[in-house]
Input
Amino acid sequence: MQSDVRTKLIEAFSTANGTFISGQQIADYIGCSRTAVWKHIEDLRTEGYVVEAVRNKGYRIITTPEKVTANEIQLGLQTKILGKKVHYEESVETTQKIAHKLSNEGAPEGTLVVAEEQKGGKGRLMRPWYSPKYTGVWMSLILRPSIPFHQAPQLTLLAAVAVVQAIENITELKPQIKWPNDILINRKKVTGILTELQAESDRIHSVIIGIGMNINQKQTDFPEELQDIATSLAIAGGQNISRAKVIQEVLMRLEALYELYLAEGFLPIKGLWESYAVSLGQEIKATTVNETIVGKALGITDAGVLLLEDQNGKVHSIYSADIHI
Output
């Protein structure tokens, strides 16, 4: 977790928005001496930031390293809570494990865990998630909503909407959601979302939302068995994208939807989710543990359960299944 001083330094540069900010202004903002400011600037430079210093003008950041460190994420971050505390690692087993540990230690709501690489990334049903270094966004977010236990799955759907909106805003791509938590572009998977609870029988301690996004992979970067079913924003859009900017946009969209959800409930989120659903109104195949059902996808319930109408007119409630479209 980065220091509060470093966080304030990044906030000062974010507020300056690319213009010069004097050493004294920075010192006043973060509450330290001019000498200490110079030391922190040098620390930024050793991390790959290009910082311009001009006498009688001050400092400004020219370029930033292509990493997803706390500094890079927080430089320009437009949220009130989400991402204000960032735990960054180069390589981890999974960001979910670290988020669980931090949550148990009392980490505040909005704490973000992000890594350049996951060696043991997992998706839904404990399937492996391919998370190579410096190519994607591998992150977990800690939320602490005061909601009933049974409503927690709604946050998975909310996160999916936030990711779709972020991709739409950053690129010209048109992503869609495949129930319950996959984001597709051109029918290929670009993002997976995994939501886990820390709870007792009567209350939720935290909801940890894991998001894995393929950003700058080339097709040949994927294992052969994934090349026909996986894609990245760079493959679909034809150019590389700043991973930190993707994280910023996802956090901003997620925070806005989260505030809406806490104020007005799930109904507006449900409508947005259904507007992005790839399979709504189409015939799909749902393979559960016990059976395979073919039918028309009608929509989702307030609990996020998929409603599937078979050829006999019977409506099935699908709680967990593999969906084939």
About this structure: The radius of gyration is 21 Å. The longest helix spans residues 243-264. The chain is about 30% helix and 25% strand.
